[in-house]
Amino acid sequence: MSSMIEFRDVQKYYGDFHALKDINLEIDKGETVVLIGPSGSGKSTLARTVNGLETIQSGQLIVNGHDIVGKSTDINRIRRDVGMVFQHFNLYANKDVLENIMLAPRIVLKMDEEENKKRSMALLDQVGLADKAHNMPSQISGGQKQRVAIARSLAMKPRCMLFDEPTSALDPEMIDDVLRVIKYVTSQSDMTSLIVTHEMGFAQEVANRVIFMADGEILEDDDKDKFFNHPTNERARQFLSKIIKH
């Protein structure tokens, strides 16, 4: 299987703060990888380097065969292939739900309007929100906004999806619906997914592989069963014992 994402000796700094330390990581096409670890461990930073939202200071980052820091690399081309769902939904407040989804395929992919509408409605149906197509973002709940944001990312037909703590801004009763949609999306396609989350039960259900980070380093990288049942790293063991007890 070929790599979708490859980090080679990647370093990332914010001023003097060393945010990502010697990151070496390969994620294969079609894998669903979950990133976990304590707050401030570098998980979101790592995810955000994959589509160039965060720059790296040294090393190589290859995304779908393209060196993300190469002088000739078109970062917008990479972003077309890499969808991202943020903690906050970033929907256009002045456009209805359907128009939020149709906008990028219309502008970037130059998609035929009828095809775009049909496909956007199908995506809304997929996330359980076909009946909200003509609602404005202010008229739907946070969980529904996040599901619209997922549909909007899928509308660009990405080869890879990044989910940066997609439930952290939601009320508890809305979390399950969003996680159910992410689980469905990752199971239905050969898309590569990288998911930053604190939801351990969800991680156990959806992941092929779990990566544990702390202090900017990858301390453990294993398949989910080995990680949750027999973590080898002491810091990972402590983290799991605290988080699963709660």
UniProtKB/TrEMBL annotation:
Annotated keywords: ATP-binding, Nucleotide-binding, Transport
ABC transporter domain: residues covered: 5-240
Domain of life: Bacteria
GO MF annotation, one: ATP hydrolysis activity
Flavoprotein recorded as keyword: no
Recorded family membership: Belongs to the ABC transporter superfamily.
Name under which the protein is recorded: Amino acid ABC transporter ATP-binding protein
